[in-house]
Amino acid sequence: MTITLPDLPFAKDALEPHITAKTLEFHYGKHHNAYVTNLNKLIGGTGLEKESLEEIIKKTAGDSSKAGIFNNAAQVWNHTFYWNSLKPKGGGEPTGQIAEKIAGAFGSYSKFAEEFKNAGATQFGSGWAWLVLDKGELKITKTLNADTPIAHGLKPILTVDVWEHAYYLDYQNRRPDYLTTFIEKLINWDFANANLG
Ligand code: MN3
Predict the structure, then answer these.
(1) Which of 159, 150, 151 is nearest to 131 (CA)?
(2) 79: CA distance to ligand 1 center in Å?
(3) C-alpha 168 to ligand 1 mean position (Å)
């Protein structure tokens, strides 16, 4: 199937002042869009054009001859998951089942926040920090470049993009400030709760 660029789940200026419309014009309108365009070009005539995005990712993971397809497919998937991990007036302490699971796995919300921020801050170069379920257990992990937990049998719950294009216009080199803002002001806990189901 042709892979399409999903609509953003909010208006481009809805996350201001934390993430500006200018950042989203580039990050969604240029970067995410380019991954979709590149992927459709690369899968044409390979047989993969008949598969879903998730199947393309799983079928090309770890195959160096298909790295271009994997990287673009994973970036399409990761970005859609990231937009859904964000919410205007989000962040702060969670409610519902995710609150109980975080308390069980990390001891407290503040300990989770510290570990999640640390994962994003210490990802060397480009990549992603994730909250995932690993055989039902909540864990924090990070991936390099386009890599994605769905290629490793993990179930993503939340993600934050730590490629420079995600924060440089708004935060320049201050990745830790971007991560603090993501945690305190932007996390979509409704999405996290839905992903536990
Ligand atoms: Mn990005």
Answers:
(1) 159
(2) 6
(3) 11
Q: How far is ligand 1, taken at its centre, from the CA of residue 128, in Å?
A: 9
Q: Rg of the chain's alpha carbons, rounded to an integer? A: 16
Determine if the pTM surpasses 0.90: yes
Cα 181 to middle of ligand 1, angstroms: 17
As a dihedral over the C-alpha atoms of residue 170, residue 164, residue 181, residue 100, rounded to 10 degrees, the angle is: 160
Domain count, the chain: 2
> Separation of 158 CA from ligand 1 center, angstroms?
14
What does pLDDT average to in each consecutive run of 10 residues of the chain (197 residues)? 94 98 98 98 96 97 97 98 98 97 98 98 97 97 98 98 98 98 98 96
Produce one character per residue of 139-159: b if its CB has 16 or more CB atoms within 10 Å, e if not. Answer: bbbbbeebbbbbbeebebbbb
Looking at the fold, whether 75 and 128 belong to one and the same domain comes out as no
The full length of the chain comes to: 197
32 alpha carbon – ligand 1 mean position (Å): 7
Q: What separation in Å is there between the alpha carbon of 104 and the centre of ligand 1?
A: 31
Tokens 């490793």 belong to 152
The domain spanning residue 55 has which CATH number? 1.10.287.990
Region of 125 on the Ramachandran plot (φ > 0 left; ψ -120 to 50 alpha; else beta): left
